[in-house]
């Protein structure tokens, strides 16, 4: 009995030390740091509207059965093709360019500035990467060592498929400024980013960084990197405004009235980067269905849409191509202009020709 008790205590201590000392989990904000904010209660951030995720055993049992049964089309049969990307020494023209690096990671070239959105360049979205679902493409469109100086890195929230410890450690010396939602600065500070290079934003904050105007706008989601920090940090979407272009980046979000509110306040947008993928009916409140993705694009008054949050990792149970197929079909029905670049392919705003091939069907 004593031996069993000692083993249990040793396991509990090991788990505690792992959660406390393993740097990948980041750093929770100090208690009561954000208690004065209207959408913060009992140490947790709240969505604008009631957002329940069904997690009881009875409701989740069918999902568990789906996972155990598996889906042969959940991942591509072979590596997803990529287009090699070479970082130019400097932006040579005034046109806005966006380059998709898979999932929700983008390089935005706006008014001569280089901006990375949710740069997740790791092999798997997991605190222990060798156990996670591996990247479809096996490699990135570039070597991180080739990464030129970045004027600004913007994060939507702190989940592993968006905020990656290994990526921060490798790019932090090349980044002039980080902009993050409330509470996320603690993670970056623990990972060696100086506080004077980090700016935190609440919903509806408007700031100007590196000559680019940013607005932190609401999303309908949640946050957390460990067992004890659920909703301790904020999640958001972003508006990026330059001299000639305005872009909306949805981050992760369930469908809700915030899209229409954003469109009425700040639309129209030349381009929207809209979450599309890793959904399930059991968590539809925090991840849109593809048809809702198109509806959200219409709500924010977007002119052209790129579906994101797909094409890199399997985090749900649907076929890996289902998100983009459904989004393309919905866009055609609604008369929405949709752009479908390959990973590593650059889209130039103002161009008459946009990537629209169904390249995933050849895999």
What would your notes on this structure say?
With 363 residues, this protein is α/β, with parallel strands linked by helices. It has one domain: Metallo-beta-lactamase, Chain A (4-Layer Sandwich), CATH 3.60.15.10. It is 21% helix and 17% strand. It contains seven helices and 16 strands. Strands 8-7-6-5-4-3-16 form a seven-stranded mixed sheet, with no helix packed on it. Strand 3 (97-100) and strand 4 form a beta hairpin. Helix 5 (258-266) packs parallel to helix 6 and helix 6 packs across helix 7 (322-334). The chain is globular and about 75 Å long. It starts with a helix and ends in a 15-residue tail after the last strand.
Characteristic key phrases:
globular; 7-stranded mixed β-sheet; 7 helices; alpha/beta; 363 residues
- Class per helix and strand makeup: alpha/beta
Can you tell me the residue ranges where pLDDT is under 50 for at least 5 consecutive residues?
Answer: none
Percentage beta strand: 15-25%
Total helical segments: 7
Give the full name of the CATH homologous superfamily. Ribonuclease Z/Hydroxyacylglutathione hydrolase-like
- Helical percent range? 10-25%
For the largest beta sheet, what order do the strands appear in spatially? 8-7-6-5-4-3-16
End-to-end C-alpha gap? 57 Å
CATH topology: Metallo-beta-lactamase, Chain A
The largest sheet is: 7 strands, mixed
Protein name: MBL fold metallo-hydrolase
Pfam family, one: Lactamase_B_2
Organism: Fictibacillus barbaricus
Domain Metallo-beta-lactamase: 114-310
């Amino acid at each position: 009995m004593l031996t069993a008790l000692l083993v249990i205590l040793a396991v509990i201590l090991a788990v505690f030390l792992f959660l406390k000392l393993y740097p990948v989990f980041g750093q929770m904000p100090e208690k009561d740091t954000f208690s004065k904010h209207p959408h913060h209660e009992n140490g947790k951030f709240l969505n604008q509207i009631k957002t329940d995720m069904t997690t009881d055993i009875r409701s989740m049992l069918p999902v568990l059965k789906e996972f155990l049964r598996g889906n042969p089309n959940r991942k591509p049969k072979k590596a997803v093709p990529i287009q090699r990307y070479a970082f130019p020494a400097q932006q040579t023209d005034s046109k806005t360019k966006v380059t998709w690096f898979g999932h929700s990671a983008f390089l935005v070239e706006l008014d001569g500035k280089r901006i990375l959105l949710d740069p997740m360049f790791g092999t798997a979205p997991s605190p222990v990467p060798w156990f996670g679902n591996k990247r479809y493409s096996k490699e990135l469109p570039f070597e991180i060592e080739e990464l030129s100086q970045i004027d600004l890195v913007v994060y939507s929230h702190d989940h592993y498929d968006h905020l990656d410890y290994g990526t921060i450690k490798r790019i932090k010396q090349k980044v002039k400024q980080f902009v993050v939602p409330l509470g996320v600065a603690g993670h970056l500070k623990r990972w060696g980013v100086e506080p004077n290079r980090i700016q935190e934003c609440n919903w509806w904050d408007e700031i100007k960084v590196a000559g680019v105007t940013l607005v932190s706008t609401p999303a309908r989601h949640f946050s957390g990197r460990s067992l004890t920090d659920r909703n301790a940090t904020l999640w958001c979407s972003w508006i990026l405004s330059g001299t000639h272009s305005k872009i909306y980046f949805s981050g992760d979000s369930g469908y809700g009235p915030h899209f229409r509110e954003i469109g009425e306040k700040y639309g129209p947008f030349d381009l929207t980067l809209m979450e599309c993928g890793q959904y399930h009916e059991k968590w539809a409140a925090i991840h849109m269905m593809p048809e809702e993705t198109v509806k959200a694009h219409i709500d924010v008054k977007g002119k052209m849409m790129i579906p994101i949050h797909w094409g890199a990792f399997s985090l749900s149970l649907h076929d890996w191509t289902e998100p983009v197929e459904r989004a393309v079909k919905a866009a055609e029905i609604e008369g929405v202009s949709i752009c479908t670049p390959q990973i590593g392919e650059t889209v130039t705003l103002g161009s008459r020709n946009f990537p629209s091939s169904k390249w995933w069907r050849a895999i």
